[in-house]
Design a protein that fits this description.
single chain; about 120 residues; mainly beta; Immunoglobulin-like; five-stranded antiparallel beta sheet; four-stranded antiparallel beta sheet; 1 helix; 11 strands; about 5% helix
Length: about 120
C-alpha cells in the first residue's frame, strides 16, 4: 500500500522553495523513517515535467544527478537527513506554484506528493 501523500508532504521543509541561478531549489527533511531512493526523483512544476537531466540532489557533501539514481546506485535517505532538490535551466516566475515530486524507495515503493508554495 502506498504511503498517503498527506504524510509524505511532511518531508517538505516549508518555505524552502527559492530561486537560484538559472533555476530553483527546495529541501526535503526525512521526518518519517529511514529509506533508500532507488529511482530518479522526477519533478513537475504546475503539471509540466522538468527534464530529468535538470534535477540533482544534494545530501550532505554529496551531489548526485537524479538520473543516476537506480537500484544499483541508490541514494540513502536516513531519518533526519536533509536533501536539497536543485532544478537547473528552469526559471520560476513569482507567484504560487505546485511542485510534484515522484520517486520510488526500496522500503515503501512508489512515492508521489505535491507541495504548493509561493515564490
Amino acid at each position: 500500500m502506498p504511503v498517503p501523500s498527506f504524510i509524505l508532504k511532511k518531508l517538505y521543509v516549508k518555505k524552502s522553495l527559492k530561486p537560484v541561478d538559472n533555476g530553483f531549489e527546495l529541501q526535503l527533511k526525512n521526518v518519517l523513517a529511514d529509506a533508500t531512493i532507488i529511482k530518479p526523483v522526477e519533478v513537475a512544476v504546475d503539471g509540466n515535467p522538468v527534464p530529468l537531466d535538470n534535477v540533482k540532489l544534494v545530501i550532505g557533501s554529496e551531489e548526485k544527478p537524479s538520473s543516476s539514481i537506480s537500484e544499483s546506485n541508490p541514494l540513502p535517505f536516513n531519518l533526519k537527513a536533509v536533501v536539497k532538490v536543485v532544478v537547473t535551466n528552469y526559471k520560476l516566475e513569482p507567484g504560487q506554484h505546485k511542485i510534484t515530486l515522484k520517486t520510488k524507495t526500496k522500503e515503501y515503493g512508489d512515492i508521489k506528493f505535491d507541495i504548493k508554495e509561493k515564490i
